[in-house]
Amino acid sequence: MIDINESVMQVLLALIVVIPLLGAATALLPAPPGLKGKSPEQAVLRHGVVVTGVVLAAAIVLALGFDHGHPSRMQATTDISWIPALNVRIHLGVDGISLPLLVLTALLTFLCALYSYFKPPAGPSPKALVALLLLLESGTLATFAVLDLLLFFLAFETVLVPMYFLIARWGGAGRQAAAWKFILYTLLGSVVMLLGLLLIGIKSGTFDIVALATDNGRSLSTSVQVTAVLAIGIGLAVKTPMWPLHSWLPDAHTAAPTVGSVMLAGVMLKMGTYGFVRILLPVAPHGFRTFAPYLAALAVAGIIYGSLACLALVRQGARGDLKRLIAYSSVGHMGFVLLGIATMTPTGVNGALFANIAHGLITGLLFFLVGALKDRTGTTDLDTLAEGSGAALYGRAPRLGGLLAFGAVASLGLPGLAGFWGEMLAMFGAFDPAAGLSRPAYLVFMAIAGFGTLLTAAYMLLVVRRVCMGAVPQDTGVAQLADVRAYEFAAWTPLVALTVVAGLWPKALLGLTDPAVQLLLAGGTR
Length: 526
Hints:
Largest sheet: 2 strands, antiparallel
Number of strands: 2
């Protein structure tokens, strides 16, 4: 780690949030400043790579300069009055909870920009594509960096517009209906969430998340906490997405372009679970305790539902879509995140935060791979892939087939890879939940979640068997498929490497999150 002055850290964090916003504006200029290409389209795509690369570099420097000896302390903080009449402040900061999400967002956005430079999705001018991708990055980074409830809401909502247009303008079949379903679900959930945020701010006299976490709900009556948790929780649950508020997700993923699916699964879903940890757990602990068993029950229902939906899609003759299958798998994986949070224990919450990062890496990789498979075969239909144009992937494109198998076994939670630790810790948290929660009920939840891991292994291994294995078909007209290209290797290698590193060295992440979680659950912050 490197020693960086606190004022420099403040500037770095502010730049990480602001640079993508400025980059989005300059992408719409007739020619992005300082960049040239063989065409205006290539120049603006190069602009996207440069801007997201600068943000990633700044995020890495921020992580290196972070005081890893005190990860529970808010660092790189900026606190400026913005709307004095409402006591709203521009308050930014990072701790061990938010820092990994910031770096993950910067990394995935850069990889999406790099992938789009070589393989731009078919559709309108890339100017709008790059601007929307950068606006999406700015809103997501701001969500993880702001420490004011109203700023959190504004950042939380900022991402809806670019994701809507990414689906509606660059998506595939059914994109308009999927985009409308996405925006309606998330907007309705956000309206309810805003009411809960306003209730907390008005009753406590502040919108500052740090002050509210330090107060730990002492200035809020139990009835206010229960009402606020219900309202805010609905909005966060839609974004997560929690069963049964998940139905927008499969349609959105199936219709979205590759980079849209990567960003949606990799970082946008994490905004909901981050809100549960950052806001509801410390600010309204008594209200959250009231709903925790119900949240856990819905979480394990989502685990089983997502797994059964995937099994239904992967069975022969079901006409399942591989992108849709991965979307349903996300419902199950995010169920483990919610279960960990619902235990209200350091073990469970740390598991949830670890599973957040693992899901972003693994599912981001899977959507990249499925996008590449569609580019080569023209389809993501499982029956077509299994019986025709994509069959026997090991023999026709061995590196691509190997990466798909790697992503599948990482997703099912193979020990030694990142997907294992989050799910295991979430179930350990359920084994011994926080005081006041019914241990027998949580033991049942743990058992159901454990059964869900078996179902996950079943459908993921079926995908590998159907798409990757078997004899190379001779009647398709094409004996081989293009294997992994150089730009694909560059975009996917970081995700593979981090999945392995996090699986073999979980302390690298848990060492950041655990002190911050311990302090958060104890009712304080520094």
